[in-house]
Amino acid sequence: MSGTNPDLVVGADGLARPVWAAGDPVLREYYDTEWGMPVRDEAGLYERIVLEGFQSGLSWRTVLAKRPAFREVFHGFDPDAVAAMGAPDVERLMGDVRIIRNRRKIEAAVTNARATVALREHEGLAELVWSFQPVDTPRPERFADVPTVSPESRALSQELKRRGFAFVGPTTMHALMEAIGMVDTHLVGSHRRGSSGLWPDRA
After folding, report:
1. Which end of the chain is more exposed for a tag (fewer CB within 10 A), N or C?
2. Is 52 noted as a catalytic residue in this protein?
3. CA 71, CA 2: separation in Å to the nearest integer?
4. Which residues pair with 10 in a beta bridge?
5. Given pLDDT bands bounded at 50, 70 and 90, which one contains residue 1?
6. Which CATH superfamily is domain 1-60+120-203 in?
7. Is 60 designated active site?
């Protein structure tokens, strides 16, 4: 354990991680290298929006395990390629056991690709998403301190829906904001706290 905080575990490498990322090697690798790091490119943000949508109601571990297959069937999350997919493609994916076979979520991936392409005529997906970055970030010490929604995630959700996106509810968008470093919800004491470089004075 890390001090008296049961939500943190010190691994054999001497680094403190939250319980959810301490045991499973897939989650540990994701936590140590990717979660909470800034993502500012269109394809990267589109991928994470889609995957956060697929995660709704499921575990993130399930999504991570299937991410290679998702990347294959969604053409490397190239918005142009996915935007060109139609009903036959959706039916084909509904029969692909390697992915999460949820029709509404698969259709949302296509819908969101088309919305992403349409945004290029305006500010673009990356600029739109990052315009909702809050002025401060939480400093959670325990899991109970980590918010699951925020005024900014509600506003981002509303704006993305207005722009034609689907499966972008406030809780899902808050998870996105955590995943791409817009907020830092690494627990205080974790070796990854402050790793995004966006909140150095609040680590």
Report:
1. N
2. yes
3. 36
4. 16
5. very low
6. Hypothetical protein; domain 2 (1.10.340.30)
7. yes
